[in-house]
Design brief:
By secondary structure, this protein is of the alpha/beta class. It has 8 helices and 6 strands. The radius of gyration is 15 Å and the shape is globular. The N and C termini lie close together (9 Å).
Length: 182
């Protein structure tokens, strides 16, 4: 078993569907990485979902003016986890923010001492979650080949930015993490 809590960020239909304006082009590759990680964490997995608020406030109003299609209730099809993850997602955390570092995730990650991140989008929700967790003093590992960005360039840039936060945040690969006995 690999140590820590695995947070699988936003593996939802809205990011998987190629017709979606929010599609992550390499979603399938990220999903393959997540599938490889899951058995190494047992029940220490939290899936997250980005969902729209009932009523956007502050700067979120302008955001949803730009993306009105997304103003749907949390049970809408676009917000569901993809079929391959929905059935096995025993712990799901919803947030109306990019960052998923909520008090609930903080409790789970702090008790494990390490937060391992995978999912989408590297340049948005993964990045936002990693920075907040690192600020809280939690060791964060971002599994580069189990993440996908809005596009390849944004993914690569986000990984470079995340790697600037060493030793609080460490960008790693599936091979490196799965051989790591810590």
């Amino acid at each position: 078993m690999t140590s820590g809590l695995l947070a699988v960020i936003d593996m939802q239909r809205v990011f998987a569907d190629p017709a979606s304006p929010w599609a992550a082009p390499r979603f399938a590759e990220a999903a393959a990485g997540v599938r490889r990680l899951l058995p190494h964490f047992g029940d220490r997995v939290t899936f997250t979902r980005f969902v729209a608020p009932d009523k956007p406030e502050g700067a979120w109003r302008a955001y949803y003016e730009q993306w009105p299609f997304a103003l749907q209730p949390p049970d809408a099809r676009l917000w569901r986890l993809t079929d391959e993850f929905a059935a096995g997602a025993h712990h799901v955390l919803d947030a109306t923010t990019f960052g998923k570092w909520t008090p609930e995730l903080a409790r789970r990650a702090t008790s494990e001492g390490r937060l391992v991140l995978a999912g989408v989008s590297t340049d948005c929700c993964v990045l936002s979650t990693a920075l907040a967790a690192a600020d809280a003093g939690v060791e964060v590992l971002v599994v580069a080949d189990a993440c996908a960005g809005a596009d390849d360039d944004s993914h690569a840039k986000a990984l470079r930015v995340l790697d600037l936060y060493r030793p609080l945040i460490r960008v790693t690969t599936l091979a490196e993490l799965l051989k790591d006995p810590a």
